[in-house]
Amino acid sequence: MASVRIDKWLWAARFFKTRSAATDAVAGGRVHVAGARVKPSREVRVGETVEITHGDRRRTVVVRDLAERRGPASVAATLYEETPDSVAARERAAAERRLTQPVFDTRPTKQDRRRLEALRKSQLRGGPRRP
User: Fold this and answer.
1) Is residue 58 within 8 Å of 44, Cβ to Cβ?
2) Domain tally for the chain?
């Protein structure tokens, strides 16, 4: 097997849960091969670079092996190799998401909520009131 359709390969490599989702992503312009937008019928070969945008995540991978059928995740992981730049960007985005999580681990108490509301009102008025 010298080449495989890009939508089949994306599905077999487990980037998308269904083949139709992979086809929609390729047709929607969220998948690029060698920097160019492609159609779902585009044949992908070993050694080509594929850029996949899935939601707000972007991955750049190099095709290492081909498969037309979906197999176990351990086999799917051998079909591609993620570039070091892509790994670094993904880890940086994960760290940013961890830092921007809410401060409260639980729901604020009634007293906490009243303090927050008082703080918001004081900021809207132009600062804290002095007696």
Assistant:
1) no
2) 1
